[in-house]
Amino acid sequence: MTDLFQYLPLLLVAFGLVIILVSIRGIINGRRFVRQAQRVQGVVSDVRTRFAGQGEHLRANQWPILTFTTLAGQEITTEAATASRLGIGHETEVLYDPQDPTTAVPAENAGGSYGGIIVGLIAVVIGVVFFFGFWDGGSESGCEIQRPDGSFESVACPPGIGIGG
What burial class does residue 111 get, using C-beta atoms within 10 Å of its C-beta: 0-12 exposed, 13-18 middle, 19+ buried? Predict the structure, then answer.
């Protein structure tokens, strides 16, 4: 069990790196969407609430239903691709994909955020700190004995005693 505990910091680092990579991908995709999207005025015509989690961890996310007219004159009503706190009747700038106008987001929610990168970096830093706190540098001798003259000598630890035992 102690050996497993030594690898938990590495798992934390790996988890943090995955969060960072997924967040960077989301930011890149969001910025790509913003560059190719068409901008029009729209209104939140309805809001759908979705719940995630259970018990005290239950969270509600609101997904606005956007109604707008494309630059080609097509009237579109679609659920936004991102959650938002915009209420019914709120006028907002809408970004939509000209190839698929049902893919739309309120302009204020476009482009992604850096929150995931920050969380990932925190996980990596904590994992690295714990890793070096538990790592014995690959040394087999984690024990010392005190000689009669008061000096110390490094020796191999008996089985079950010391670091990594």
Answer: middle
Could you give the 3-state DSSP secondary structure of residue 121?
helix
Smallest Cα–Cα separation from 78: which of 106, 59, 56, 52?
A: 106
Q: Which two tokens stand for residue 64?
A: 């606005």
Distance CA 116, CA 21 (A): 9
Quick one: which of 28, 29, 12 has its CA closest to 121? 12
**Tens-of-pLDDT digits for all 165 residues of the chain?**
556 666 788 888 999 999 999 999 988 988 888 899 999 999 999 999 988 888 888 988 899 999 999 999 999 999 998 888 888 999 999 999 999 999 999 988 776 678 889 999 999 998 888 877 765 554 445 678 888 888 888 877 777 665 544
68 and 43 in contact (C-beta within 8 Å)? Answer: yes
Q: Model-level pTM? A: 0.62
